[in-house]
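Need residues for this backbone.
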């Protein structure tokens, strides 16, 4: 039986719609459940986080080290004393002061720190030089001379400080013997700003060769305070031999003050050496007329 044309056309349209909708039903039937989809998203997020952590750890530069605090600086400073036994040092200081009391002198004996170095070649290695201000003046009678202008000469005269003005320096006329004699007469020199510029022209290199080139003093500073600061400052300088000595106290000081001066001197010296304690051969303490006591 033949179907009418309209029914055949409708049946064909129905079959076409069925074929077109079939894949959609298959895709719908093959889609993951909401739980599976959520688990997959969680795994993707976790993998992304791990990738970000790895990339940040490999590409980001390491954070800069924190600036040194006062406690760290203090720890490094006290660490320099680790090889110097405090008890041995205190015992040596006590012996020196007792010896001085037993044998009274007509002057106050200076206590000197004598240093022997090792593993240093003065010809090849850099010759270090440095100064440090000690907590207590080791030599109160240390001789200081002021090379000053008119104002500083007047101030020096008021406090009883030796001085030389421009005219006195000109009279030396770069005479090497006179300059050398001047350098031996005083332990240290101070100079006004107007004078210090003329030192090489007036005196030549004599004071510099002796390691006593003047320290600058401005008119804004107290001259008396500058003198006390100069007296409390000791200088370490490596020359042609591997030994040196600096004044760290006197027999009129308290033992605690001497100990503090020695401690600071040794700490500073060790900081100047290229290998720190590995360059220290020996350390001795000795008064002017007394025995030698080894402290390291």
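Answer:
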């Amino acid at each position: 039986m033949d179907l009418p044309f309209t029914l055949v056309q409708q049946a064909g349209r129905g079959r076409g719609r069925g074929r077109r909708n079939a894949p959609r039903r298959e895709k719908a039937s093959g889609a993951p459940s909401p739980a599976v989809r959520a688990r997959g998203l969680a795994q993707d997020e976790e993998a992304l986080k791990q990738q970000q952590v790895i990339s940040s750890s490999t590409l980001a530069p390491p954070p800069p080290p924190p600036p040194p605090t006062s406690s760290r600086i203090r720890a490094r400073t006290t660490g320099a004393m680790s090889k110097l036994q405090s008890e041995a040092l205190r015992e040596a200081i006590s012996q020196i002061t007792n010896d001085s009391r037993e044998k009274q002198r007509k002057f106050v004996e200076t206590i000197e720190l004598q240093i022997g170095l090792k593993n240093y070649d003065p010809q090849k290695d850099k010759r270090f030089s440095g100064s440090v201000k000690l907590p207590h003046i080791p030599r109160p009678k240390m001789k200081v001379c002021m090379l000053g202008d008119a104002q500083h000469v007047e101030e020096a005269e008021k406090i009883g400080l030796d001085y030389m003005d421009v005219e006195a320096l000109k009279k030396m006329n770069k005479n090497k013997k006179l300059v050398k004699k001047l350098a031996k007469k005083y332990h240290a020199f101070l100079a006004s700003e107007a004078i210090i510029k003329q030192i090489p022209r007036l005196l030549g290199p004599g004071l510099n060769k002796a390691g006593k080139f003047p320290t600058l003093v401005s008119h804004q500073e107290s001259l008396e305070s500058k003198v006390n600061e100069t007296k409390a400052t000791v200088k370490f300088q490596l020359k042609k031999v591997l030994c040196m000595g600096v004044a760290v106290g006197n027999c009129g000081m308290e033992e605690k003050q001497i100990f503090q001066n020695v401690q600071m001197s040794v700490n500073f010296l060790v900081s100047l050496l290229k290998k720190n304690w590995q360059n220290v051969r020996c350390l001795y303490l000795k008064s002017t007329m007394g025995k030698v006591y080894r402290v390291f």
